[in-house]
Automatic annotation (TrEMBL):
Phosphoprotein in keyword set: no
Name of the coding gene: LOC18613356
Species annotation: Theobroma cacao (Cacao)
PANTHER family named among the record's database cross-references: DAR GTPASE 3, CHLOROPLASTIC (PTHR45782:SF5), MITOCHONDRIAL RIBOSOME-ASSOCIATED GTPASE 1 (PTHR45782)
GTP-binding found in the keyword field: yes
Entries under SUPFAM superfamilies matching the protein: P-loop containing nucleoside triphosphate hydrolases (SSF52540)
CDD domains in UniProt: YlqF
Protein name: DAR GTPase 3, chloroplastic
Alphabetical list of Gene3D superfamilies matching this protein: 1.10.1580.10, P-loop containing nucleotide triphosphate hydrolases
Keywords per UniProt: GTP-binding, Nucleotide-binding
Amino acid sequence: MTVQLSGLWLSSPKIPIHFIQCPASPSLDPKLSRTTALSATASLSSPPPTIRIVGGKTPMWRDNENVDGAVEDEADWVEMDADLCYWTRALRPVQWYPGHIAKTEKKLKEQLKLMDVVIEVRDARIPLSTTHPQMDLWLGNRRRILVLNREDMISTADRNAWAMYFSKQGTKVVFSNGQLGMGTMKLGRLAKSLASGVNVKRRAKGLLPRPVRAGIVGYPNVGKSSLINRLLKRRMCPAAPRPGVTRELKWVRFGKDLELLDSPGILPMRISDQAAAIKLAICDDIGERSYDVADVAVILVQMLAKLPTVGMKALQNRYKVDVDGQCGKIFIEKVALRLFNGDIQQAAFRVLSDFRKGKFGWVALERPPR
């Protein structure tokens, strides 16, 4: 049979024991890792003939027996960012810019000029990776509400950390769960209150009051349409757990006082930060055709193994496999052999799907920078 992984083909009558060489990790200078972890970006040149995915410091497989006392300090997350940048260097760049995004982006920027308030929706697991690099430029001084959706998938400590971070920036933050409707009513009241001055000015000019206009923007599959449907308490906008469902701008009325603009997910034409792109792939916030499922699953395993709230032991217990090495690819391979007759793609998809469904508990993949 033949197995493909990111352009590398290996032919063998059986699934090989090590289908990709996992080299020893180079050690990083702690001083350098602190200064470069948050700014380093992956090279977008063609990948070398062999894939090397394990890097940074030697992965520390942690148990999750005493997670209540675990402390995720700044050094842990800086080290994680540094490792993630290293792991992505040899992979094929993740890029996704379908035609409907290009067509609607221009229309969206024109509509934003008419907005009284803009509601930007991000994935609470990766708030920094799900913001468009040009969003601040587009919005200017326009009033903004930041919604961190999928709050049910992160811990209270994560929510508090992000709330404090954005509060210091003067940004209004609402945590929500678009599937269950948590936070939606608060969002509606906040949007109306922030834009209340619009009709005060209109009355002063002798004009009749009008509904507040709120545009809802954000990356694909972060839950924009689900939030609108929950606000309206009926299905007015198409929504599904995959990127690219909404393809047209659509106005909907919420009561007599608020009009909402549902928009397609927007992405930059070129994603230069490949560490962020991998997080988008892990959280299903980018089209599946843009990445190799097996590569992304391997990185997810290595990230979860380093988090004290999960740890390698939790992964081993869930899939009933024993891994004594330091390579995520070996773990995916063993899951494939045990559960899917050696099908690596199915094993990788299972691990990603379990993460996306919250099977590993409350797991954020980002913490606020300091």
